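# nightly structure sweep
# worker-07 picked up a monomer target from the shared queue
# config: single-sequence mode, recycle default, output format = structure tokens
# input follows
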Amino acid sequence: MAMESEDEKETIETIKTIIKSCTDIKQRVDELPTFDIEYLFLKIRAKSVGEKSKVILTCPDDNTTNVTVDIDLSDIEITSDPKHDKKIELSDTVGMVMKYPSLETFVKINITGSSDNQIDQVFDLACDCIDHIYDENQVYDGTDTPRKEKLEFLEQLSSDQFAKLQSFFETMPKLSKEVPVKNPKTGVESKVMLEGLASFFG
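# output follows
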């Protein structure tokens, strides 16, 4: 029901209510990183509906054949990339410290799909996740800095600097599991990496 709601605010409130009702977490749900929210959702689903989920995967050896695989949701954990860093050095004197996407951002991107433009989504996500920006003279708090100014700052990044920003999101902790698959047509055994909450449901 939470996923089917078109009202973003209603979806956020429903998710918060589910997590609060089904866990004994003392921390504010709004403050949880998205990967923790995904992990909680996965565990709640496993306990309420069952620990097995059927997922259709495409065999990597021919990129054509689809096979149905049973995933044990109790085995899914959060994995971390050792190269991940919340601090992004843009130059010798300028940089950013990032924070993880909020529940609101998680819902906006993963459930309600507020923006169809992928570039806009990247900038919106990055804008929401700036904890602070610093230079040799001053630190600019992301909460106090107007959104327009943060977007302008992001838009003037060079391609190399933007790649560093993308790396923050790509290496962020996430739900992931390597799943073995066997192509019934070729007999070839391969492994498929599943990442993110949506990957574990058919």
